[in-house]
Amino acid sequence: MTKTRTTRYDVAEHLRTPEDMAAYLEACLEEANGDAAFIAKALGDIARAKGMSQVARDAGLSRESLYKALSGERSPGFDTILKVIGALGLKLHAEAVLSAAQQAAPVAATRRRKRG
Q1: Exposed, middle or buried by CB within 10 Å (0-12, 13-18, 19+), for 25?
Q2: Are 15 and 45 in contact (CB under 8 A)?
């Protein structure tokens, strides 16, 4: 009988382009549910894909402190997150989230106009 040999999946090996990195971070932001350590870990994955030493230099941090900050075991300060995002060549953006009532309002207004 042959043994199956497996290796641990490392997402950093699959983040090859800036677009891949941005899409991965966007997906993690949507899944995080307010878990800052989860986002820090995602940034750590991207930093490893890009090269941790270079990201640390570009962010103005030591390599060791960057590893600790992005380990997913703690929530780094927002200033660190902003430095890392900039060093990764990514940009943070905001988007309005509509409540269910706000989403339904345009539909109701359209129905009223059609009846009018």
Answers
A1: buried
A2: yes
- What CA–CA distance (Å, rounded) separates 113 from 115? 5
**Domain residue ranges in the chain:** 11-115
Say if CB 35 and CB 5 are below 8 A apart. Answer: no
Instruction: Judge contact between 66 and 55, C-beta under 8 A.
Output: yes
* pTM higher than 0.70: yes
Give 69-90 pLDDT, tens digit per residue.
999 898 899 999 999 999 999 9
Diameter of the chain by CA atoms?
76
The whole-angstrom separation of Cα 26 and Cα 88 is 14
CA angle 37, 7, 32 (to 5 degrees): 20
Q: What are phi and psi of 9, to 5 degrees?
A: -70, 130
CA 71/CA 30 separation, integer angstroms: 19
Q: What is the dihedral of CA 43, 45, 49, 53, to 10 degrees?
A: 70
